[in-house]
Design goal:
286 residues, mainly alpha, Arc Repressor Mutant, subunit A, Four Helix Bundle (Hemerythrin (Met), subunit A), 2 domains, three-stranded antiparallel beta sheet, 12 helices, 5 strands, 65% helix, globular
């Protein structure tokens, strides 16, 4: 008997379909897992696991605290150097914290840093004060400064170019203008700029930073000498003598002019102490 070619094939049971679908899903899962990292067993850290990063908020908070401390330190230091905060003035950390809109912690850190520099004196159970100016420290600082600055000028004499002379002359013109205006803050800034420019021309900008650290107490003392009659004009003339000798190629005279300029700082100590004795202290006499 002949079979019909259009005879229907026997239908698969529902259980067979379910089994086939499960097999296909399992195969697909295996294929995916072949490209996925292996899961670590419970209780054991993965070997390639990276340590958790510190929370961004914690890092930002630490940076903010350091920034606040640095800002308060810079403001207080400049006030002390400018004698806006005079030797002997009391420092109240809570008041400073309120003024700067910060907590007491960054203020305390700034005060401790200033104490390390000798600009602040902390007296246990008494209080915190702007330190008085140590006379002995002035002499030591000027010894260091003179040796370094004379060496800088000797180096400048070997490297000087016309544009350097112009740079120094522009600074001196600004310093003369400050002298005529009796603008002591501007005078001091141009004075710093002159000496910093010499160190830069010498190729030793780091030397000026060393000098700045050594002359911290000298800066406070010099603020007291500027009002003396003729003092600012005399400083400008002494600077000009250094520049003139350098421009003319007289290296030895330039170095001598710088030494003479710096030698004029200390002789007026006694004059200055006469009208502000409470600003000074001589540790060796105590």
């Amino acid at each position: 008997m002949t079979r019909s070619s259009g005879a229907a094939r026997p239908a698969r049971s529902s259980s067979s379909k379910t089994a086939a679908a499960g097999t296909a899903k399992a195969a697909k899962a295996v294929a995916v897992d072949d490209h996925a990292p292996a899961r670590a067993k419970p209780g054991r850290p993965r070997k390639d696991a990276k340590p958790a990063a510190a929370p961004v908020a914690a890092i930002d908070e630490a940076d903010s605290a350091q920034s606040a401390s640095r800002r308060v330190y810079q403001v207080l230091r400049q006030r002390i150097l400018d004698l806006e905060m005079a030797p002997g003035d009391r420092i109240v950390e809570l008041d400073l914290a309120a003024e700067h809109g910060v907590s007491r912690t960054p203020v305390h850190e700034a005060v401790q840093r200033l104490a390390d520099e000798g600009l602040v004196e902390i007296q246990q159970r008494v209080g915190t004060f702007v330190a008085r100016i140590p006379v002995d420290g002035l002499e030591e600082a000027m010894l260091v400064r003179t040796a370094l600055e004379v060496a800088v000028v000797e180096r400048v004499a070997k490297r000087l170019r016309p544009e350097h002379v112009q740079q120094l002359q522009l600074i001196l013109e600004a310093q003369r203008a400050a002298t005529l205006a009796k603008d002591m803050p501007s005078f001091h800034r141009t004075d710093e700029a002159f000496h910093a420019a010499l160190a830069d021309i010498a190729g030793f900008p780091g030397v000026w930073r060393t000098i700045q650290q050594a002359k911290t107490q000298v800066d406070r003392f010099r603020r007291l000498t500027l009002p003396l009659e003729g003092r600012m004009a005399g400083v400008v003339d002494e600077h000009q003598a250094v520049v003139d000798a350098l421009r003319d190629g007289r290296a030895a005279e330039a170095a001598a002019a710088m030494r003479e300029h710096l030698d004029h700082v200390l002789p007026v100590i006694e004059v200055t102490r006469a009208f502000r004795p409470e600003y000074f202290v001589n540790p060796q006499s105590q």
